[in-house]
Amino acid sequence: MKQEELKKYADEVWQENRARGVETLRPQTREKLLKSASQNAPKRILELGTAEGATALSLLAYAPQSFLVTVELSEERALTARNHFEKAGVEHRVRAVYGDILDVVPALTEPFDLILLDGPKGAYYELLSPLLSLLNPKGVLFADDVLFHGYVTGETAYRSKHGAIIRSLRAFLEEAKKLNGNGYTVELLNAEDGVLILTKE
How far apart are CA 153 and CA 72, in angstroms? Predict the structure, then answer.
């Protein structure tokens, strides 16, 4: 597909995912991410949490010179995403990895210009340090859902079953804030479910 056709197809997959309730980026968050990809033109992108491939397709469309590594734990979703990549003709620009991101990330060695963290929220804190080591200078780490339905800020009361996730996200945000001005620029957006954007200087 040509770039405009790929954008259109990515939009269609994203809208269809949202209609079916498949986990995918919310509108404002998606717009912010794609604007960053378009402006910064990343060559190598890492996506943690493929779902059915809607965001990966969008990133490939808005960063046409990029190669994307994407990781997904659900075999069924990974297969659906792979089918979308083949239909769009971008399979040669994607390395789809099926597995647990806590196992996959430590094994990665090549750096990235853009990293999208949208996997299991309870793993965010543990992943912060290894992901920063994979980030190129001027690279961006874009972490979605960091406020987790308002539970992280205490805006909304949470059930005990979410306790480990909340603690991980709070520790992740606290550690990220310490990096601001120390080789990184850190921005926390309260829109939708919260996005943290960390740029390496």
Answer: 28
